[in-house]
């Protein structure tokens, strides 16, 4: 099926990009800044791109209130790449050899936990697997190690629709946060974590660039086996240009940051995001056909998972919603059901139209 209009795209990533950003990119595609070429065609070391690069970093520092104690790296390889880079850069800081603790609250933190096992001792300090990743384990049940280099957690589990409401208390230990799916969606105290990382393809722009925010004193401790492309200190020394950077993705991220600033910054977008999530969860909670299975205190604002209580209607629900221009609502294959990802660029109108469709479908089911 093809559309002659913009759809409401509820995909988990790559996800919706603000229409204003897409239009600017289209207008500048053939002639960026009067150079007679697109931003993809100019040297990444030329003065024009370097000016763009520095402005992109400044805007991100402004949006997230990133102090000068933390370096910003714009890398490739996504969160999966950082699942290897983080242990290779930080595990040597363990008191008795390479070791790290993991809070396993979904598929993505589980992937991080399994990848880290290749580089040292990965200790599962907490897990909600027994609860089908529908909650976050009680703080009293966490078994944090005394000799781990850091504690890793995923702030928002895209697949299961589980989100930490606050930065977890880990008794003052070094904390690493995977913010791939809730970066720039609410205010975060950068000083509370040694490392923050996430891809751009959910709340910022297209895929291709991975943001790593790392406390400067944590660099320079990498394992000897660390590939140069994953060595944070080397990347910092070369302005994330040890290899050719993803120039178009950085340019698009920069446009995304400008768009966020125009919306009023992170504080303003957080209020909008909460409003969208509240609307959808309130509808689900009163429905006789749909249900959300995540513990209310840990429901994601970004990825709203839900199930039809009679799953015989699944195929028809997906077919009709797609025909109505409500696209990519099928849940991840590991979780089943449905999922509406309502990231920064999803307008309130998109959620309202989705609820109207779901209410009508429920009446007809």
Concise synopsis of the structure shown:
By secondary structure, the chain is of the alpha/beta class. It has helices at residues 19-28, 47-64, 78-90, 107-116, 232-237, 247-262, 265-286, 314-323, 348-364; strands at 8-9, 70-75, 99-104, 121-127, 151-154, 156-157, 162-163, 175-178, 195-199, 210-215, 290-291, 303-308, 326-327, 338-341.
Provide structural commentary.
The chain is of the alpha/beta class and 365 residues long. It folds into 2 domains: 25-262, 3-Layer(aba) Sandwich (Aspartate Aminotransferase, domain 2); 263-364, Aspartate Aminotransferase, domain 1, CATH 3.90.1150.10. It is 33% helix and 16% strand. The chain has 9 helices and 14 strands. The strands form 4 sheets. A 7-stranded mixed beta sheet has the order 2-10-9-8-5-3-4. A 3-stranded antiparallel beta sheet has the order 11-12-14. A two-stranded parallel sheet has the order 1-13. The two termini are 24 Å apart. The model has no long low-confidence stretch (mean pLDDT 97).
Give the structural class: alpha/beta
The rounded Rg comes to: 21 Å
* Mean pLDDT across every amino acid position: 97
CATH superfamily of the largest domain: Type I PLP-dependent aspartate aminotransferase-like (Major domain)
Write down the overall geometry.
Answer: globular
Question: Helical stretch count?
Answer: 9
The CATH architecture of the largest domain can be given as 3-Layer(aba) Sandwich
Order of strands side by side in the largest beta sheet? 2-10-9-8-5-3-4
* SS strand fraction: 15-25%
Q: SSE string, helix = H, strand = E? A: EHHEHEHEEEEEEEHHHEEHEEH
DSSP summary, beta strand count: 14
According to CATH, the fold-level topology of the largest domain is Aspartate Aminotransferase, domain 2
Q: Give a quick account of the main beta sheet: strands, pairing sense, barrel closure.
A: 7 strands, mixed
Give the distance, in angstroms, between the N- and C-terminal Cα atoms.
24 Å
Provide the helix percentage: 25-40%
């Amino acid at each position: 099926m093809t559309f002659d209009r913009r759809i409401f795209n509820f995909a988990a990533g790559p996800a919706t990009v603000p229409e204003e950003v897409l239009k600017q990119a289209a207008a500048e595609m053939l002639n960026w800044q009067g150079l007679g070429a697109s931003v993809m065609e100019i040297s990444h070391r030329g003065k024009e791109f370097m000016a763009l690069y520095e402005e992109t970093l400044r805007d991100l520092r402004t949006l997230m209130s990133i102090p000068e104690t933390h370096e910003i790296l714009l890398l490739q390889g996504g969160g999966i790449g950082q699942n290897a880079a983080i242990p290779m850069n930080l595990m040597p800081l363990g008191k008795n050899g390479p070791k790290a603790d993991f809070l396993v609250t979904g598929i993505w933190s589980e992937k991080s936990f399994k990848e880290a096992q290749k580089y040292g001792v990965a200790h599962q300090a907490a897990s909600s697997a027994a609860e089908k990743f529908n909650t976050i384990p009680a703080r009293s049940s966490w078994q944090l190690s005394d000799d781990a280099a850091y504690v890793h957690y995923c702030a928002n589990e895209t697949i299961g629709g589980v989100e930490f409401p606050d930065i977890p208390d880990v008794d003052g230990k070094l904390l690493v946060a995977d913010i791939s799916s809730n970066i720039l969606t609410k205010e975060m105290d950068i000083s509370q974590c040694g490392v923050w990382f996430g891809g751009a393809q959910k709340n910022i722009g297209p895929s291709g660039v991975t943001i790593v925010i790392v406390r400067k004193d944590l660099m320079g401790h990498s394992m000897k086996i660390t590939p140069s492309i994953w060595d944070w200190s080397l990347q910092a020394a070369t302005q994330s240009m040890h290899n050719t950077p993803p120039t178009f993705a950085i340019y698009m991220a920069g446009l995304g940051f400008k768009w966020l600033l125009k919306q009023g910054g992170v504080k303003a977008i957080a209020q909008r995001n909460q409003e969208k999530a509240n609307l959808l969860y309130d509808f689900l909670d009163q429905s006789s056909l749909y249900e959300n299975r995540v513990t209310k205190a840990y429901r994601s604002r970004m990825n709203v998972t839900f199930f039809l209580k009679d799953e015989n209607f699944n195929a028809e629900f997906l077919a009709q919603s797609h025909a109505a221009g409500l696209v990519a609502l099928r849940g991840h294959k590991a979780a089943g059901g449905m999922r509406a990802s309502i990231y920064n660029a999803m307008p309130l109108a998109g959620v309202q139209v989705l609820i109207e469709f779901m209410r009508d479908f429920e009446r007809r089911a």
